[in-house]
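thought: fold this chain, then report.
action: predict
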Amino acid sequence: MYHDVTMAGFGGQGILLIGNLLAEAALAEGLHVTYLPSYGVEMRGGSANCTVVISDQEIGSPAVGSPRALLVMSRPALSRFQASVKPGGLLIVNTSLIEPAEVERRDVELLAYPLNQIALELSHQRLANMVALGLYLGRTRVVGLESIEHGFAELLSEKNRVFIPQNVAAIQKGMALAAEAGGKS
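observation:
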């Protein structure tokens, strides 16, 4: 088993959090993981991206030139990374900030949703990253929801753990959307 994903957007969108969360969940399942974050000097509002590799075998390098999956939350992220996705791969796009016509790839599976609006309907726009993660998890089934919940407990401070239920609900919403779109069972 091998999965890799690049996640990208603006700083402040929680890109690094969902990448780290995915990595923690995979570790909880006993898998091999690399997590490679990158962000602009601006932090909030600048660029942020990370690559997560998950395998049941040892991983030779955390660097991935052509990921099998790409999750993009902003227009600049799409422009920068869409050409890198492997043909036949998965592309998750936040149409709240990216016009669908800007997606040039026709050789990938596209899951395009207005993630900011969906998150706002759930409770808060800041949950858009969790809906996106749910889409990825619903499509790939790389880790279970219980492992994601474990990841939250590992990553969040005691005072922020009160937000775990709404984050899990946002992930479940994304997983449901992926299932409706024909996600893997």
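thought: worth noting. The chain has a mean pLDDT of 94.
final: tokens above.
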